[in-house]
Each structure stands twice: as C-alpha cells, then as structure tokens.
Amino acid sequence: MENFVAAVRVVCFVSVGVCIIQSITDGTRLRGAADIVLKLIFAVAVTAPIVSGAFDIELPDLSAFDSTDYSYSTEIYENELCTQVSENISAVLRDQLKAAGINAEKIDTEVNISQDGSISINRVIISTSAFEASAKIIRGSIGQETEVINGSY
User: Fold this and answer.
1) Cys bridge to 104: 11, 52, 100, 128, which one at CB 3.0-4.6 A?
2) HSE-up of residue 18 (Cα within 13 Å, Cβ side)
C-alpha cells in the first residue's frame, strides 16, 4: 500500500511539474521539445513502479467460473418459459373475455411444455362473477377438454 501511495505522489508531482513547464514554455520554440521530454518523464513516472515490481498485480483465479454443467441454466430457462407462456395465454384469454363483455378479476393458466416443444394447457383458473359464460368462451378458444376452475366464487 505504501508503494502505491508513493507512486501516486510521484505522478501528482510530475503532473504539477508538467503544467508549470508547459506554462513557462508557452509561445516559445522550446514548447515542442519540452512537451516530448515531459511526456517521456510522465510515462516513466507512471510505469516505473509497475516495471520495478513494486506492485504485485495478481490476476483473479477464473477457474471457479469455468463450469461445463449447464443443467441449472436449462432448468431456469424452462421454468421461465413456462411462466411467460402462461402469462401470455392468460392475457389473450383476458382480452377475449373483455371483448365478450366479461370482467375477469384473475386468470391463471397452468401449462406444460414437453421435450418436443409442444405446449399443453392443463387448466385455467378464473375469478369472475360470470363463470359459466367465461368457461364457455375459454373452452371454445382452447379446447373443450380444457379444465376450467372457478377461482373465487
């Protein structure tokens, strides 16, 4: 830590010196030569602690992040896909019921996505006062074998 503080101090002093010399040589023929020399001095001041080994720069061990087991990612993906499909189907059903003049307080759709990617709707749980009319519309949209459950009444 002390080496780092010393290096920061050197960089600060060199920077102040660069500013002073640049302001003194402003408008003279020495300006270009002074700039080159000052930039070299600044570069040496910045790189000297690193080159001399004052700092032990250690790269983090990245082997802990090398994992070939992606099964947890697949499981998370499949769960999120089921959730998103369920929400999308519920939104479509809500819009259909709204178009028919039925206000549904809550619609939950339980879906199952098989390995071949096909989606099956297991059941629809609906909370509304017009349950029978809603169930008829839902079964007409999804299929007559769909289980529609009254969720609140």
Assistant:
1) 128
2) 17
Residues 6+ apart with CB under 8 A from 87: 109
The whole-chain average pLDDT of the chain stands at 80
In degrees rounded to 5, what are phi and psi of residue 111? -120, 160
pTM over 0.70: no
Pair type for strands 119-127 and 106-113: antiparallel
User: What is the residue-wise DSSP string for 98-131?
Assistant: HHTT---SEEEEEEEE-TTS-EEEEEEEEE-S-H
Q: Residue 56: its pLDDT value, please?
A: 58
| Closest of 141, 144, 147 to residue 97, by C-alpha | 141
> Looking at per-residue confidence, does 22 or 129 come out higher?
129
